Amino acid sequence: MELTKNIFFNTDKLIENSPIKLSYTGNLFKEDYDGKVFIHYGFGLNWDNVSELEMKKTDLGYQAEIDLPESESLNFCFRNSENVWDNNNGENYIFPIEKVCTDLIALDNDDLALSKPKRLRRTYMWSKKVRLAVYKLIKYVPKILSGNYKRKVTNEE
């Protein structure tokens, strides 16, 4: 998922307590830089737990994996080993982190009655036998009653 130009995540949403893979195809990648590129990141408004991680260069851009803690946002910028920065024109890259949904769904008594499993037939073979018997009754009983039923007779001489 691309949330902003040149930044891609392997997920639709950033959710707390989950790992993400981030891909970067910005200026440091476009300049075909052969040195190392790092992601400098922190969490929340105050950039808590600041870390820096070397990114791996691939054909799809520079990539890194980050574990998201419980926080309201992921903040990051990029730099290379020559101390050239890509910090979104001084505004840094900031993405919200969503809370894990822990809401429970309350069911009414009527809903509970509907959610009970229905009784299954005893066996598959039994149901096949019943279907065959019903088919024969529907097909042959009217013929027998009307007198139009003719039995196939083979002459074995």
How would you describe this structure to a colleague?
This protein is of the alpha+beta class and 157 residues long. The chain folds into 2 domains: 2-96, Immunoglobulins (Immunoglobulin-like), CATH 2.60.40; 109-146. It is 21% helix and 33% strand. The strands form 2 sheets. Strands 1-2-3-7-6 form a 5-stranded antiparallel sheet, with no helix packed on it. Strands 4, 5, 8, 9 and 10 form a 5-stranded antiparallel sheet that branches. The N and C termini lie far apart (81 Å).
Summarize the topology:
Elements lengths: L1 E3 L2 E3 L8 E7 L2 H4 L6 E7 L4 E7 L1 E3 L2 E8 L4 E8 L4 E2 L6 E4 L12 H6 L9 H23 L11
Antiparallel strand pairs: 1-2, 2-3, 3-7, 4-5, 4-8, 6-7, 8-9, 8-10
What proportion of the residues is helical, as a percent range? 10-25%
Structural class: alpha+beta
Uncertain residue segments: none
Specify the CATH homologous superfamily of the largest domain: Immunoglobulins
Largest sheet features: 5 strands, antiparallel
